[in-house]
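Quick illustration, no need to memorize.
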Amino acid sequence: MNETPHRYTAELAGRIEEAWQDRWEAEGTFHAPNPAGPWAEPEAVATFEEHGKLLVLDMFPYPSGAGLHVGHPLGYIGTDVFARYHRMTGKNVLHCLGYDAFGLPAEQYAVQTGQHPRKTTEENMVTMRRQLRRLGLGHDDRRSIATMDPSYYRWTQWIFTQIFESWYDERAGRARPISELVAAFERGERPTPDGRPWTELSADEQRAAVDDERLAYSSEAPVNWCPGLGTVLANEEVTAEGRSERGNYPVFRRSLSQWMMRITKYADRLADDLDRVDWPEKVKAMQRNWIGRSQGAQVAFAVTTPAGEQKAIEVFTTRPDTLFGTTFMVLAPEHPLVESLVAPGEWAEGTNPVWTGAEASPSAAVSAYRLAASRKTDVDRQSEGKDKTGVFTGSYATNPVTGEQIPVFVGDYVLMGYGTGAVMGVPGGDQRDFEFATKFGLPIVHTVQPPEGHPADQAYAGAGVTINSSNAQISLDGMSVDEAKEAIIAWLEASGAGHGTVTYRLRDWLFSRQRYWGEPFPIVYDEDGHAHSLPDSMLPVELPEVPDYSPKTFEPDDVTSAPEPPLSRVPEWVNVELDLGDGPKRYRRETNTMPNWAGSCWYYLRYLDPANDRVFVDPEVEAYWMARHESTVEGAPEGITDPGGVDLYIGGVEHAVLHLLYARFWHKVLFDLGYIDSEEPFRKYFSQGMIQAFAYTDSRGQYVPAEEVEETPGPDGAEPAFTWRGQPVRREYGKIGKSLKNAVSPDDMYATFGADTFRVYEMSMGPLEQGRPWETRAVVGAQRFLQRLWRNVVDEATGELTVVDTPMDEATRRAVARAIDGVGRDYHALHFNTAVAKLIELNNTLTKLPAVPREAAETIVVMTAPVAPHIAEELWSRLGHPDSLTYEPFPKADPALLVEDTVTCVIQVQGKVRDRIEVAADISDADLEAAALASEKIVALLDGQSVRKVIVRAPKLVNIVAG
C-alpha cells in the first residue's frame, strides 16, 4: 500500500503542469494589452501606468525536424523567469515567440522527397509548440507568427519595397523616399552624375541616376557558384579544397546579377550607436570588427596598359606613411582592371621566371591563376600560414612618391570584397607582403626603424621613427608614424595623387538566393529589363507551386553556366500582365527569393501588432512597447541617449553579428522613413551560455549514440571506461545536439521529472551567460527541492495542508526577509542560479520548523513561481487562493528585518584567533574592548599576563597584544 499517495512525483507534476497550462490558455493569462490597433485595450494598459511595460523576447527559433533538445530551452526559461518576475512587480509584460520558418533544411528535404517544405515546416512547428507549451512558458500565444505565412511575408515584401524606394541622403544623414531624390534632381539641388541638368537627361539616364542611389539595388556580385548543384553556396558550404560540402562538386567564384542592400551607407551609425545599447562588450567588439571602420588614405597608382591607355589603380591604406616602401602591387583575381593590364604575346625579355607561373604568356598565366582562384573560398584564400601565390600581369604601375615602376601582380590573398580589391605591397611593414616579396624576390624597404633585436625575417608594423621616406618635395624621415601619416596625406591631396578618407570592412548585403523556400521579391521587370516595385495592393506575392524544388544542375566544370531558380519553371507565374499605373503591360517576375534573414530582420515588430492588416505595426503600439527614454545611457559617453528597443533580448552569440546587424539596418531605415519611433531594435541584448554534454567517439573517430554507451567503473578509483556495443569509445565534452549524437529531449525530462524540475535544474546550473555541462543524474537535486517545498505545505499521506496560522518567530521572519531581498534582486539581474540557491536555503530553514507558518509558506511559494510556476500555482490554490498568482505582487522585505541586531566578533591574541563572541551591531569600541577582555577563554589564556595594547575594530574584530 502506498503510504505517500500525495507525494510530489513526476506523475503528479505532469498532471499539475498540464492542468495549469490548460487554464492559462483558457483564461488568456499572459495576454498583454495594447494601447491601440485591433487589440486596443487602453483601460487595461492604464492599469499598468504606475509600473510601466516590459518587452522580453528570445531570438527566433528555426522549427527543426529533430525538435528541441535540452540545450534549446535555456534562454527561453531565462526570459520566462524574468518576465514572470516583472509581472509580479506590476509591469505590463509582453513575452512571445514565433518561428523563422523559411530555410534550407526544409527545402533540402523537399528536394529529396518531393514533399512541400511548408508541410515539413508545419509538422516541425507542431512538435516545437507542443514541447514549448509543456515547458510552461508564459507566452502571449495570440502573437505567435511564422515567416512563411503570406500574411506575415506580405509585410516583409512591403518593407523591401520601402527600402527599394529609398535613398540615403548623406547631408541629412538619413534615408529619404526616392521621390524626394527625383525632386532634388529636378530643382538642381543635387547634381546629376555628369553635371548636366536633369531635363537634359534621357529617361534611361534619369532612371540610372536614381537606381544608383537606391538602398536596394541589383548588381553584379562575386558569389560561390556550383554548377554541379545548380546553386550559389554560402562560404560555410564550401570546403577548403574549393568544393561543395554536399556532393563534392567544384565551386567557382563568379559575378552574377544579385539583389543587394546598401547597408554600407549606415556603417557609421551602426558603429556609433553601439555606445547607446546595453550589450556585452564582446558582442559590440564583434560588430565593430565586422563593420571595420578604418581611417587612412585613398591613393592612385598610375599605370599605362599594354594598349597605351592611362589607368589608375586605386588602393586604400591605413598606413600611407609607408608609401615610400611600396615595391609592388597585387590585384584580386576578380579586379576589373586585370584583363586590361595583361600584356599580349609572350613574356617580355628579362621577365623574372618566378613571376610568370611557368606559363608561356601573361595571358595564359593570368587565366590559369584566375581559374584556380575561383575554386577557393575567401576563408581559404586569406588563411594564416597559407603559402602566398601570385602571377605577374606583365604591367607596371608608378609609385606616386618615388616615381619608380613597380610590378603589378594578381594574387588570391587579395579579395575583391574588401577595400578596393588592390593592395600596395609594403614588405617592410606588412608580414603578408613580406612573405610575398620574399617568395618572388622583390625589394624590401623598411620605412619605420625596427627596434633593436627585431627578427630580420619579419616585417615591422609598429611605432617608431620614419626612415627611407623622402623625395624632392617631401621628407618624412625622423617623424613619428602619426606625424608622417598627417604629412603624407596633405602631400597626396596637394599633388592630386590621393586623399585622406575613411573606409569600412563592411560590404553591401547580398540579398538574393537561387532557391524556392523563401520570400518572393515584390519586383517585376518590364520589357526593357527595368525593375519596378509592386504597389501595396498587389502584396503579398505568394510562392507558387513548382514541379521541382531543386535548381537546374549543370556539368560540374561548366563555368559558363548560370543559376536557374525553381521559380523560373513556372512561366504562368513568372510572366504576368499588370497595371502599375500606366495601363496594362507585360512584366517578368524576379525568380530569386529573399534570404531567410529577411523575415528575421523585423519579426519583433510584428509581435507587437500581429492582427493589424492595415500597417505592419501601429505607430502608437510601437512607441508604447519600444519607446525611447529621455535619460542618457548608463556607462555610455556623456550625452548618449537611450535609443529605445526591446527591453531584453536573449539569444546565442553565434547570431551576434549578422542577425543583429541586419536587424539594426532595417530598423534604422524604418526609423528614418518615419514608420517607427525607436532607433535600435534591441535596447538590451544578453547572450546565454551553451549547454554541453558528454559525447563519445569510436576507433574511427565517429560519434556514437550517447544513450547507448555503457560505463564501467575503473578499479581502485581510476577513471571509468566506456563501451558501445562491446567496443571501447572515447568520452569528450561537446555542444549538445544531433551532430554529436548526445542530444537529450526535454520530453524525457518532462516524463522523468516534470517540467518544473527541468526548469529549476537549468536555471541552477550556473550563471546564465556561461556554458555549463549537462548531467541528467544531477537533475534529481532540483526535484528534491520541489519535493521538500511540497511537503512544507502538503501532507504526503493525506493531501491536507500542513501550514499553521501562527505568526513567524523572529529568526524565521528575518530569514524570509533576507530571501525576499536577495531573490528579487537576483531575478532582476538575471542571476537565476543564485536566486534558486536562496530559495533552497529558505526552504531548508522552513523544513526544520515544527510547522510552517502560512505567511512563510505563501511567501516562498510566490517567490518560487517565476522559476517553477506550475507547482507554485498549485500550492497557491491549495492555500486557498482562487486566482492565478501570475499577477500576485512579489513580496517586499521589511528593511528593519534586514539589519543584523548582532554580529560575530573575532577576538585575537597575538594575531591568532582565540574566541568569537556575539555582540550588538552598534556596540562602541570601549564596550567591545571590555567584552573581549571579560571573555572566559581570553581570561584563561592571558592567565595574569599584562595587556600591552588592544586594537579594536568594532563590531567585528579585537586584537590583544599581551606579554
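The longest strand covers residues 216-226.
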